[in-house]
């Protein structure tokens, strides 16, 4: 059975608002984040889901419960948490200023220091950006290309096993992780270059086939697009 997967990015959080690096560290949803998610939840309220899943981080768990509570056509039991769908890990940079972090990463990438993450990625490419992040991390704990790709493949495999008898599911994950999935699996991505960062509360839709092959067919859709 093919499974239609709705990937939802969690709502805005405190660290999003404060401009701090947030990967595996966690902060609560803001009022704005909750309000935006209510729009997404309303847009999905009449879509039947066989199940709902989320990353094991609280901002994702709170988001999936908003989706579940608003849906009027699905009978969803206990939400299963999938740690494989966590955000990208930024190691020692977790909780630091985003601007200071990107300056350190740009320096490690060998380009003029900048706070503009897009400028860094445009200059060196998404893969060298990941390697520069690990290099700039004083403890070298940040996920690099290989580590993130292995976790991403594991996430798809785990989701295939969980959803073999489910036709449509919702999974709440995180911006950078969804973007990384998009680079690899979106049918409009060449697999090499950067793509837009998904908005808080956005929906990315993919198809998971019987053999575990995953393809994203709609990326970063707002509530108005659904």
UniProtKB/TrEMBL annotation:
Substrate binds at residues 9-16, 59. It comes from the Bacteria. Keywords: Hydrolase. The keyword Hydrolase applies. InterPro entries: His_Pase_superF_clade-1, His_PPase_superfam, PG/BPGM_mutase_AS, Phosphoglycerate_Mutase. PROSITE patterns: PG_MUTASE. One of its GO terms (cellular component) is cytosol. One of its GO terms (molecular function) is fructose-2,6-bisphosphate 2-phosphatase activity. The active site is at residues 10, 87. GO terms for biological process: negative regulation of glycolytic process; regulation of pentose-phosphate shunt. SUPFAM superfamilies: Phosphoglycerate mutase-like (SSF53254). Pfam families: His_Phos_1. PANTHER family: FRUCTOSE-2,6-BISPHOSPHATASE TIGAR. This is Histidine phosphatase family protein. It comes from Lactobacillus porci.
């Amino acid at each position: 059975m093919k499974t239609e997967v709705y990937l939802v990015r969690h709502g805005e959080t405190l660290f999003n608002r404060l401009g701090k690096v947030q990967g595996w560290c966690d902060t609560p949803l803001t009022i704005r984040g909750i309000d935006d998610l209510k729009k997404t939840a309303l847009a999905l309220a009449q879509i039947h889901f066989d199940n709902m899943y989320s990353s094991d981080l609280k901002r994702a768990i709170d988001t999936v419960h908003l989706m579940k509570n608003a849906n009027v056509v699905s009978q969803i039991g206990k939400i299963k948490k999938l740690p494989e769908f966590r955000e990208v890990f930024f190691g020692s940079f977790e909780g630091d200023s985003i601007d200071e972090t990107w300056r350190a990463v740009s320096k490690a990438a060998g380009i003029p220091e900048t706070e503009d993450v897009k400028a860094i990625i445009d200059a060196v490419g998404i893969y060298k950006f990941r390697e520069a992040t690990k290099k700039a991390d004083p403890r070298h704990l940040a996920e690099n290309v290989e580590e993130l790709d292995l976790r991403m493949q594991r996430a798809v495999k785990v989701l295939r096993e969980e959803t073999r008898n489910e036709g449509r599911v919702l999974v709440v994950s995180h911006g950078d992780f969804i973007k990384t999935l998009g680079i690899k699996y979106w049918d409009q991505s060449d697999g090499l270059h950067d793509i837009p960062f998904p908005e808080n509360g956005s929906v990315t839709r993919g198809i998971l086939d019987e053999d575990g092959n995953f393809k994203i067919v709609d990326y970063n859709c707002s509530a108005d697009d659904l």
